[in-house]
Amino acid sequence: MLGGIFLTYTIKEVADKVGLSAYTLRFYDKQGLLPFVSRNESGYRAFTDGDLHLLHTIICLKNTGMAISAIRQYISYVMAGPQSIAQRRELLTTHRNAILAQQAQIMKNLKEVDYKLNLYSDPHARELVQEEIAQAKSEKQALGLADPFPVTE
Fold first, then answer.
1. pLDDT (average), residues 13-40
2. DSSP, res 42
3. CA–CA gap between residue 11 and residue 33 (Å, rounded)
4. Residue 66: Cβ-neighbour burial (10 angstroms; 0-12, 13-18, 19+)
5. φ and ψ at 43, to 5 degrees?
6. What is the dihedral of CA 116, 122, 126, 127, to 10 degrees?
7. What is the DSSP string of 130-141?
């Protein structure tokens, strides 16, 4: 809305605004994610500011790993009106928990990456890496396994 005037946007304008391709928006529409988008008298999709808000939610859900089928279910709840609030809350709570679990795993992996970066940034990195290799070689040898570390210094 601009000064009390309601605006509509073409698929190209929306694609530019939200950072998706027109192809992706058409795909989302074919997947049943955009039932709230109306068509103008020429048959073209006419997006409103309200549609952009819902599209932002769809993009957020997709970017956080929600499956298209689950997003479609969420949108069907939205289209059903206020009586679906409990279902929306349940679906989003489940998704939030999945995001938190993924975030925890990412943090765990980041700690390992940071550990390695600190190791390789240490002034004694060469010696520390050699110690790691020596330990791995010793373990392989004790278990009667082949030495996968042919390079030695």
1. 97
2. T
3. 14
4. buried
5. 90, 5
6. -100
7. HHHHHHHHHHHH
* pTM above threshold 0.85: no
Provide the token pair at 127: 């010696």
What backbone phi and psi angles, to 5 degrees, belong to 39?
A: -115, 145
Burial of 27 from C-beta contacts in 10 A (0-12 / 13-18 / 19+): middle
Alpha-carbon distances of 84 from 28, 72, 91, 119, rounded to whole Å: 22, 14, 11, 52
Extended beta strands in 6-115, E state = 38-39, 45-46
Residue showing tokens 């009586």: 83
Q: Are 15 and 25 in contact (CB under 8 A)?
A: yes
Query: Can you list the alpha helix ranges (DSSP code H) found in 31-83?
Result: 49-63, 68-80
pLDDT, tens digit, 9 for 90 and up, residues 95-152: 999 999 999 999 999 999 999 999 999 999 999 999 999 999 999 999 999 988 876 6
